[in-house]
Amino acid sequence: MNKSDSHFRWLIVAAAVAVLGVSCRRPNAPVAGADALIRAGLAAISGSATCDVTGLPKRVVHAKTGIEMVLIPAGEFTMGSPANEVGRSEDEKQHPRVIRKPFYMGVTEVTQAQWQNVMGNNPSYFKGDGLPVEKVSWEDCQQFVQKVGDGMRLPSEAEWEYACRAGSSSPFSFGANITPQQVNYDGDYPYNGAAEGLDRERTVPVGSLPANAWGLHEMHGNVWEWCEDVYAAYPERGTEAANSDSGPIRVFRGGSWFNYSNYCRAANRIIFFPGFTSYDIGFRVVLAPVLVQ
Length: 293
Description:
About 20% of the residues lie in helices and about 15% in strands. The chain is of the alpha+beta class. Strand 2 and strand 3 form a beta hairpin. The longest helix is centred in the N-terminal third of the chain and has 18 residues, at about 5-20. It starts with a helix and ends in a 6-residue tail after the last strand.
């Protein structure tokens, strides 16, 4: 396939997603029944609304771990940050991404209780069942999801940023700025001239700060969240797929309680070796049930 053919196929995919929209309104999408949830180890949360097209409940719980998850719709978005965004880095080049299928993402970061139940230990510096597990490396996270099974994995960078933005294009899902009442970061260093605020100097219980528009808590701040990808420069366009090129460096996203506010931007990327741990790095998980005709 030559370059022009590849570009033409990309335009077809992008146009299709634009017509389908960021929702469950696709007219001829495959319909998933209870079997899709069973295969993924998921159960609908009582009272959850259901996606009319896929048949998937919008909120579920993973049976083995007790992790609550929310359905993230398929759609498209612009990944990265504009050149004039305060605090941006050169590796945040804006480019289009198509999220080709819906997936479930953890409503919160994985807690210490959930980690303990699967792994039998708790490496965290700040102790508490409802606090996010931290001091876990990318390699540790791989052991966790492999032990759980059911197709659970880390999100790709594209999935993470798409879910974090929740339809927004501003530096934060909450808008042009944040406050410590919304995000757990070092309030002594506010974003873009905002007033100083609370510096908690530690993690907070998951779900204790406001959710974004898609029901996800603490996507900004609290603890950094590992992504699946090998770090690389962004392509000109892409999908939700993680970058699987060979390389020693992995990516984490979202900022933490320890960081200045600009590190909590939706587009910010931080990299380290996969064996690295710190008391401000954790993770959340995703599952993508296989939809059937």
